[in-house]
Model the fold of this input.
Amino acid sequence: RFSLFVHRVFKKTSGNGGLTLYLGKRDYVDHIASVDQVDGVVKLDTKDFGERKVFVQLACAFRYGSDDLDVMGLCFRKDIWIQHVQIYPESHKPTLSPMHDTLLKKAGDNTYPFSFEIPKDLPCSVSLQPGPDDKGKACGVDFEIKTYLAMDKCSPDEKIDKKDTARLIIRKIQYAPSQVGAGPKAEICKSFMMSDKPVHLEAAMEKDLYFHGEAIPIKIKINNESNKTVKKFKITVDQTTDIVLYSADKYTKAVYTQEETVEPSSTYENTLSITPVLADNKEKRGLALDGRLKDEDTNLASTTVLRQV
Done:
């Protein structure tokens, strides 16, 4: 009997061919109390390095302008958190994990491991959906692993050539709690002019957690005791985005809408199943999406789950 385990490997080689960055995955889960460790390796061809050293950097940054706006020395990108390690000459020796072992076997000789711990309080990867006519990279938060050749890890006087770098975008993604709580309930009573009786409305959901693409059943009960026709009651799913990195900007956008009618002196009782998805919201500029990797699709941004302090 034979068993075969194939581990997908992501790699990127620098323009000079001297650096090849290897990662075993590109999604790292925020479990609230901790974040998955980033383990990788870099394969080196040192013949043209001279006295230069090799560093690996993990940076979390917020982009709030497209590339074509980077004029007059202005950069519309703010580093939120950044960490460097030197791997050659070797000074960073992480405890080897099973991921390291897999990557070291894949990359072969002259390969150096590295590890990063992502702080728990950093935001998850998110991008703001551009408008139909917007060009360049989308605004949002991204995480990038970069390995590069330099005399010093971050000297402002040293210009690092693009061909001396290799980089991969990774994602910090939100953990979905395994425990699902009871769903919310709400009720209102509304009166109308020229009618002595009101309209009662009740709405309830089965649970408080839903996954991407999962239908959300909403139980609606309306007792229209008035002599008026309820021409419209509307169900909407709203996404609220709160941006605090460069300004106190908070806005809400509807990602699903459905309308119904109730006749006078009648009742309405139904369970409406709704599914908000990105495919129905492609034209809405500024909608928050889960961080996107190149050539891969994404979802409406997951709800941010905060740690209890």
